Amino acid sequence: MKIAIGADHAGYRLKDEIVPFLQSLGHEIEDLGCDCDQSVDYPDYAVPVAERVAQGKADRGILICGTGIGMSIAANKVPGIRCALVHDMFSAKATREHNDTNVLALGERVVGPGLAQEIVRIWTETPFSGGERHVGRLNKVMQLEAANVIHP
Ligand code: RB5
After folding, report:
1. Which of 71, 76, 87, 111 to mutate to test the pocket of ligand 1 (most atoms within 8 A of CB)?
2. What is the total count of domains within the chain?
3. For residue range 19-33, what is the model confidence (pLDDT) as tens digits?
4. What confidence tens digit (pLDDT) does each residue in 74-101 have?
5. Ligand 1 neighbours (beta carbon < 6 A)
6. Averaged pLDDT, 124-131
7. Which atom of ligand 1 is nearest to the CA of 8?
8. Radius of gyration of the chain from its Cα atoms, rounded to whole angstroms
9. 15-42 as b/e, with b when 16 or more CB fall inside 10 Å?
10. What is the pTM of this model?
11. What terms describe the molecular function in GO for this protein (predicted)?
12. Is residue 152 domain-resident?
């Protein structure tokens, strides 16, 4: 599949380890940076990756910062994005099966490269379970996004 990937200064080293790994699994990678230690702002990398996915120009997105938290918050502001912050293999599988997540966030300061590779492998290989239960819940999430309302 085609995967857009982005990172900030605290995540680009892990990105540079994940990119060849994903390529070795046969994926086409669009690397949207960054590639240096100079401090940058994670939304500037989260949004372009999320937009590539939302526009259908990439099948999935992967975002890496120090914790993965800022990237996941920013990506989830883009309509159509379901981004999960994942640091274990169980959640990597579950978030594909239950949430049909289209963007994965990782924290370079949280996971080592070996675990990160296993997480991305599982997350890219696991299909959405589908079914009335999960589809119904995701429809409710999409309705929230469409309504853009905060209930009192
Ligand atoms: C950068 O220091 C750090 O705040 C950022 O990479 C990320 O962890 C934010 O959520």
Report:
1. 71
2. 1
3. 999 999 999 999 999
4. 999 999 999 999 999 999 999 999 999 9
5. 8, 10, 42, 65-67, 69-70
6. 98
7. 6
8. 15
9. bebbbebbeeeebebebbbbeeeeebeb
10. 0.96
11. ribose-5-phosphate isomerase activity
12. no
